[in-house]
Amino acid sequence: MSFIVSSLLLASLISGGYGRPVELRQAAPEVFKLPIPAEGPGPTFDATATRVATNAQIRNAASPDLCFDVSDFRAGDFRFNLVPLALKPCNPSVDGQKFDLITKGAHNNNQDGTKTLIVSSQQFTCVDRRGNKNDRTRPGLFACGGRAVGDGETTDDQQFFFNLNGTATTGFTLVKDSKNQGVGAGNACMTLNKDGFVSNTPCSPPNFTPEQTWIIGDAPAGSPPPTVPDASTSVGSTSQPASTTATTLPRAHQEHLKSLYCPRLEMMVPGPTFDASATRAATAAHIRNAGSPNLCFDVSDFRAGDFRFNLVPIALKTCDAATDGQKFDLITKGAHNNVQDGSRTIIVSSQQFTCVDRRSNIKDRTRPGLFACATIAGGIGFPLVQNSVNNGVGPGNQCLTLDADGFLRNTPCSPPNFSPEQTWIVGDLGNGVVSATPPQASPVKPSPVASSPSSLEPTQSSCQGTTVTATSTVTVTVTSQPQATAAPSSSAATSSPTSTSSSTLVAAPSPTTKPDVFVLPKPEEGPGPTFDNTATRAAKSVQIRSAASDTCFDVSNFKAGDFRFNLVPVALKKCDATVDGQKFDLITKGAHNDVADGSRTLIVSSQQFTCVDRRSNINDRTRPGLFACGGRAAGDGGTTADQQYFFNKAGDLGKGIGFPLVRDAVNNGVGPGNKCLTLKADGFLSNEPCSPPNFSPEQTWIVG
């Protein structure tokens, strides 16, 4: 069967309507609801805490009508972390202006009340010294304890020296990198910045400038309402009991409105990219459901995902040939699909270059959505490769299925027998299917920008307002064994819009047994993983071998982690002294291990400078994997018990030792009730019950 697929590769990124004044009107601010935690406990109210202030406004002494404000919670990520800390006109009815000061609690282990957390009474997240999503050197909200999923303990990134001195005013001196216990020159304090947000600037406590002085407690009742700005750049008046207020629409929000699909490129490392090396069985094709042939896969609502446009739900919407969010490539081999025989495909958005992942719907993590392509094979029915039975044939498998709510779901199936809801028609909108937007009678002439080789990817200039339009026509032949098509070439974009390029086979790269060469990721935020030259090492660049088998810790598959190479699973593979991914350091004291007596160790990859963390396996977050030392994704954490293991200094490393977990340990890691790193039958590490110093062979590790 042959068919023609027309693809609008880059279409009208900026709407012509943005030449008009921007005016948004809303009846009331959005009501905040705690996100449903997919991993970890999420943000919770600390009922054990000691509070010196509850539900209080925090005003600035230099501008006493301005209060801390985190109402714009959607400016953060999908967990509502990284919300910028703004200063806005005080309003006692705004929940986003209410804060608790916690001097002792689940996330503040300080005993004498001299250090405080500043916690949003609305969101239960903490002011973190560099938790502003737009500028990671400035304060914003982050999960208390410093772990994104809310299961951290205490971090000095969120502690501030605190002394009211019998008044209602104080400065907030940062505990992190403080001098002389936060007294005198060389310290940094939270400061009102001219742009209306909080910044960390030099200070000399207890002498604070007015911009560094904060008044704890509600503003006087007589505080004037904010000034009504010009209508062309304002939010319409908001109806409230007995008053009407209006606030200026920030420039950042105006720019946000302009972008139809302009991800913040600096946040995408390596980010979604077009795979020019891929073998495609279909290009820019619609995927329709056999049970409802007028409904197509649709990911147009990309802003429903997180700030990187991952986790976008896959909806089924009325097929429309003009909708780029309904165009997909089927890639049977490429940078993110290493299966050689074409038996597995990934489904890639032709618009966003991200992959259909079996559990990446931001609203329901058991259902499919878009996620950055990375070692995912979603393998016409689409049986899932993950947890498949009998190589995806027969009962016990799961398939992508049209659900009654209009979104995809993974449901039981018995390939090759698929229900109509599990059967998908890949191609154009022929066979009598009516498109919501009829195709144009004449194609659009490509612009000069579109004819350049780089026009296959969104560019920075596109995000600055350039309108780019290009069309191409690709002939795709689908047989019982799909033929492969070459990636779109620059010549296709420069030719006449009505030209047709035939399918061609892409030569398979020569096989290689050499592992990928690891290169430290370029840190976008924080220092990233670094070699700790201050550390005390009990072992350096050694293998860690199981006493039960001739297998060693192995983290060579670093691309199995996230874009920072965090969350890399710790596998057990045949020991090979030439493999860098099998080399580790045992650090008993250092930048990320503050225990002075050498009784606890970190297990650090000598290759990647990241630490074995008790629950950082990207495929199963209850099991060990690599994570940035200190427990902060960007590498700027201190010490976390999630990465510490009890260490017997007198033990013989060559005869074998155990690694009892420090987190949730009983009796200082001795006797029953503890957990240890354990070799599991599936070839990966797990945390299993143990009774140190008695270890099973699977819990005994020979270091050296």
Unreliable runs: 1-27, 222-269, 375-379, 439-513
Tell me the overall shape: globular
Strand order of the largest sheet: 2-7-8-11-13
Q: Give the averaged pLDDT, no decimals.
A: 76
- The rounded Rg comes to 28 Å
Approximate strand percentage: 25-35%
Determine the N-to-C terminus distance: 60 Å
Question: How many helices?
Answer: 3
Kindly name the structural category: mainly beta
How would you characterize the overall build of this protein?
About 0% of the residues lie in helices and about 30% in strands. It is mainly beta. The strands form 16 sheets. Strands 2-7-8-11-13 form a five-stranded antiparallel β-sheet, with no helix packed on it. The protein has a four-stranded antiparallel β-sheet with strand order 24-23-19-29, with no helix packed on it. Helix 3 (about 490-495) links the parallel strand 30 and strand 31 (about 500). The longest helix has 8 residues, at about 250-260. It starts with a strand and ends with a strand. About 40% of the residues are buried.
